[in-house]
From TrEMBL:
<dbReference type="Pfam" id="PF00463">
    <property type="entry name" value="ICL"/>
</dbReference>
<protein>
    <recommendedName>
        <fullName>Isocitrate lyase</fullName>
    </recommendedName>
</protein>
<dbReference type="InterPro" id="IPR015813">
    <property type="entry name" value="Pyrv/PenolPyrv_kinase-like_dom"/>
</dbReference>
<keyword id="KW-0456">Lyase</keyword>
<dbReference type="InterPro" id="IPR040442">
    <property type="entry name" value="Pyrv_kinase-like_dom_sf"/>
</dbReference>
<dbReference type="InterPro" id="IPR039556">
    <property type="entry name" value="ICL/PEPM"/>
</dbReference>
<dbReference type="GO" id="GO:0004451">
    <property type="term" value="F:isocitrate lyase activity"/>
</dbReference>
<dbReference type="InterPro" id="IPR006254">
    <property type="entry name" value="Isocitrate_lyase"/>
</dbReference>
Amino acid sequence: MPYQNMVTAAEEMIRSQGDSWRSIEGESVARMQLQNRFHTGLDIARYTAKIMREDMAAYDADSANYTQSLGCWHGFIAQQKIISIKKHFGSTKGKYLYLSGWMVAALRSEFGPLPDQSMHEKTSVPALIEEIYTFLKQADARELGMIFRDLDKARSSGDTARERFLLNAIDTYQTHVVPIIADIDAGFGNAEATYLLARKMIEAGACALQIENQVSDEKQCGHQDGKVTVPHEDFLAKIRACRYAFLELGVPDGIIVARTDSLGAGLTKQIAYSAQAGDIGDQYNSFLDCEEVTDLSALRGDVVIERDGKLMRPKRLPSNLFQFKAGTGADRCVLDCIVSLQNGADLLWIETEKPHIEQIASMVDRIRAVIPNAKLVYNNSPSFNWTLNFRQQVFDAWAEAGKDVSGYERGALMSVIYDTTPLAAEADDRIRTFQKDAAARAGIFHHLITLPTYHTAALSTDSLAKDYFGEAGMLGYVAGVQRKEIREGIACVKHQNMSGSDIGDDHKEYFAGEAALKAGGAHNTMNQFA
């Protein structure tokens, strides 16, 4: 509804109450309503799910319409990211947020820093989703409040052109609230536990849940060793649990991202149930590393299965885990993805050990032969050494093409001595276009970096500490932080405003009129940054 219509509607409501509401101003009511357009997390989940569905359709029409996100471990980080996107690009179109289970474990657990092994409190995940959206809604309130103040100034000075411009800015305002893809790990338990957690995450505002096919109580980070997968039916039960949660809460457009860790997982905890040859359980078991049993006396409490009329013993480790045949990871990934999409998942996530477009595409091509519109969420992981990987990819491509690479040592390409070489330049260009190229060739709809803000916080803090506690002293902060904030237009240089002091002053004026004791007067030192 246009702003002026909202004001009129509020004024009519106030008049209907007689004199008892005479001190309530309709325009102030309309402003507060606009500054809080999302009343619940479910409002957010429904709104953002629709955005994701539209973006997925746009990508299907043209791969140039891929989307992106950065992982955020605090509401403030998410807020500043979206404020920055709006400032630099004018729109949040195609820009999402990612909630990383890794960063929740490392930064948000009451146990202290933990590895990404599902040991942190499951409640910390929906709590972070809620925190993030609280900060994004506050960014809306802050920015709209500044527009309202400018509108009042324009009216008081009689600047009708400026007034029209600002009224249009209000009516076409783009919220800071964007979709969040939230990591539910392996569901933190059985399918019922997955459903309960999914419901809490959706109620907090999540429109997209990313769930992986690892064993919940053996879950490992996607870039660690020792990953153990589950049979397909176990994983599909959790996918269905997520879908039931979305449907129960009235979010039919909710997105389920099915992640397979099979490429790097050589172990399973269970042998799948199979009712008949060729069913999904039989296909899962076909990847087990087995040896034929010809002498029953050699069995000592072993598990055996029948395969092609032969009695086979799957290789079992002292940990009681069963081993897959070497070299089957890609085949298992393809099967995982096809089965997940055929059973309710919307997007795929294939966790890889390196950022190699053709490796990803080789699997996606096989998936798309069965499901043509299959598309991926892909982790542009900080666990990859991007510089070394791409320099080695260029080295290998040049060598294969017969180009002279004698001036380079493949194993040492990370060295600074190669930074200004043609090989390094080509590698950097491939990194620069990786997302666009992978979206076109490998079916990647959404590119994310799981834990970038973990690294940026460490890097910026190291830089400040080095300067401030060193020879630079206070200049380390002023030159390294504040001066840059001012000159680069970083909004939180006015940290009182960013924390909500002006919003509070506006409310005090609504509530108390001329008697309001406001914080943003002439003696507020924040005015030095005007």
